[in-house]
Write a structure and sequence with these properties.
single chain; TIM Barrel; globular; binds ligand G3I
Length: about 375
């Protein structure tokens, strides 16, 4: 667009916009030429996380909310930038099984329909968790016996996984089962009164995995944990469980590492520990998935956003370099709908898109890293 004498302010903005975009594309193109990357964006490639990740055979995912699918910007960003979506709440026990004799699949069905209409995969979340348990389980009219609760959970898993058989490609079967000290977390499912495996270590987890596998033998089955990113008692408990399950042929496909982090995470100690933890899990032959990435910042200023971008880049780098890391998934994608709402109601700034769905430095850092080198061979999902 040429700017004639007497240009208006809008004309100047238009020129500046196109100039900025041209410089950005030049920068990305230049980077591709410099790195000789075979994965450089062709001129007509859409600059999206989804497309750029596909060049590494990496799934790029996000938690998603069925109630927001009617928001055009939300839906447009979700379908263009992500190859996997995961219901943030719609498949949790309290939502999908609100009463003893009633299932509510509506929210999850809407997300499945959206995903299938946009060639996206769906990751199910979750079948057994100590949170978001409905009242009819927590406060029964008469106390549960372990045998009765065992049947409730067995029927729940068979019904939910069976309902989505062949459509949900992976499940967080058990979510956050461990305490920080590595012991089993006390819960209605474990020991209050539990499903019959109280005091028997990971037997409860094993049973849930076997029920899920029976309901859909082709689904990938994960145990998902928070606070087990590096080396600590919890991650050691996860590793010990995984090693035991692999040895005994328990149907476990992989481990979900949630990665709810903050801008201080990209210290060498944290990143090295994460990389080493990922490596030891992968050495068992398991998939490792980064399942709930967000990077909390004390405020949304330029420094915070720059630090946040570094963390996203470094986490993505670790996943890209590990062939067994098959998914990089954020817990939502726009700050407008992050779960990290401040007590004063102001939402945090933890995700790659801002409240107006503009691409933040974190987005650009991830896209730039995806244009760089890194393992780009087959990953577990593509290997079979
Ligand atoms: O559905 C009810 C609604 O009927 C009610 O009007 C409203 C107000 O009370 O609450 C709604 O339920 C909320 C639910 O999200 C759905 O929006 C719950 O109060 C709220 O506690 C729940 O928060 C979710 C949280 O898990 C529960 O612990 C967050 O959205 C969700 O992002 C978060 O996700 C978890 C992962 O599942 C596991 N890993 C940690 C992660 C963050 O906590």
């Amino acid at each position: 667009m040429r700017c004639r004498l007497g240009c208006t302010r809008n004309d100047l903005y238009g020129v500046l916009y196109h100039l900025h975009r041209a410089l950005f594309i030049l920068a990305v193109t230049g980077l591709c030429l410099l790195t000789g990357s075979s994965k450089g964006q062709r001129k007509d490639d859409p600059l999206t996380l989804r497309a750029a990740a596909e060049k590494h055979h990496l799934l790029m995912g996000t938690a998603a909310d069925a109630d927001l699918l009617s928001d055009a910007q939300y839906a447009s960003t979700l379908r263009s930038e992500y190859s996997v979506l995961e219901p943030e709440n719609e498949m949790k026990f309290d939502s999908i099984h609100p009463a003893p004799d009633r299932y509510n699949f509506s929210g999850a069905d809407a997300l499945l329909a959206f995903a299938e209409a946009n060639s996206m995969k769906v990751r199910g979340h979750n079948l057994l968790w100590y949170q978001q348990v409905p009242g009819w389980i927590l406060f029964p009219s008469s106390p549960w016996t372990p045998a009765a609760l065992n049947k409730v959970l067995a029927d729940h898993i068979a019904t939910v996984v069976g309902h989505y058989k062949g459509r949900v490609y992976a499940w967080d079967v058990v979510n956050e089962p461990f305490n920080d000290n590595g012991s089993m977390r006390s819960s209605v499912w474990y020991d209050k009164p539990g499903i019959g495996y109280a005091g028997q270590g990971t037997k409860m987890i094993e049973q849930a995995l076997r029920w899920a596998h029976a309901a859909d033998p082709h689904a990938r089955l994960f145990v998902n944990e928070t606070g087990a990113e590096g080396f600590n008692a919890k991650s050691n408990a996860v590793y010990a469980m995984a090693k035991d399950f692999v040895r005994r042929g328990v149907p476990l496909s992989g481990i979900g590492i949630e990665l709810h982090t903050g801008i201080g995470f990209d210290q060498p100690g944290s990143l090295d520990a994460l990389q080493a933890n990922v490596k030891r899990l992968a050495a068992l032959g398991l998939e490792v998935q980064f399942t709930e990435v967000d990077v909390d910042t004390p405020n949304g200023d330029r420094f915070g956003m720059s630090e946040e971008a570094s963390v996203y880049r470094d986490l993505l780098d670790i996943c890209l370099r590990q062939p067994q890391c098959s998914l990089f998934q954020t817990w939502g994608f726009t700050d407008a709908h992050s779960w990290l709402t401040r007590p004063n109601g102001v939402r945090g700034w933890p995700l790659p898109f801002d409240r107006a769905y503009r691409k933040k430095p974190a987005y650009r850092a991830m896209l730039k890293r995806l244009e760089g080198r890194g393992y780009d061979g087959p990953r577990p999902l593509h290997a079979r």
